Amino acid sequence: MKKPTANAVVAIACAGGVMFMTGAAFAAVPLYQLFCQVTGFDGTVRKADQAPDVQLDQTVLIRFDTNVRGLPMTFRAEQVAQRVRIGETGIAYFDVTNTSDRPIQATAAYNVVPERAGPYFQKLQCFCFEGQTIQPGQTMKFPVQYFVAPEMATDRESRGVEEITLSYTFYPTQGFDQAAIAGAPPSSQGSGAAG
After folding, report:
1. Cβ neighbours of residue 128 under 8 Å, at least 6 residues apart?
2. Which mean pLDDT values do the consecutive 10-residue runs of the chain (195 residues) have?
3. pTM over 0.90
4. Is the CB of residue 75 less than 8 Å from the CB of residue 167?
5. Of residues 107, 76, 73, the one with CA closest to residue 176
């Protein structure tokens, strides 16, 4: 058996490194998303199975911010803010309208500011990370059911939080051909609620 040359070993190592890095790049986004959802890191909201049994007298103002990236649609919160007691379940509604003459496919992502409130802002129902197909001219209403966990009031870093902004951004679902919609330049729309 012939021993590989030094150049062949380097070439094989480089090819293996490229394949590993390509695989890591594809795995990074879902793994980071999972990590953030589990830990609340970077203002990512956690998904809860049930609301807490305890409601505190302390209230928090929840602001809702809406954004659109690269889609011919309007997106707005029916209320720009709600005041809820810590531990109380709140519900907010969002309206999305396809302003084009073709169906569009979109997905919403979200985050919370300040980031230190992320682990305590928890949702029971949400339309985020679910691909949506919206027909031409169609308006859809999406609910978000949420609460602020009572533990936030005793956490040293977050106990002074009096205002939380929940920000959603709709973006094209992977594989959606934005160029197929004639005359629909990429747009950015905000509700201005994140004041």
Report:
1. 107, 108, 109, 110, 168
2. 80 82 63 55 59 90 95 96 96 96 92 91 85 94 94 90 94 60 40 38
3. no
4. no
5. 107
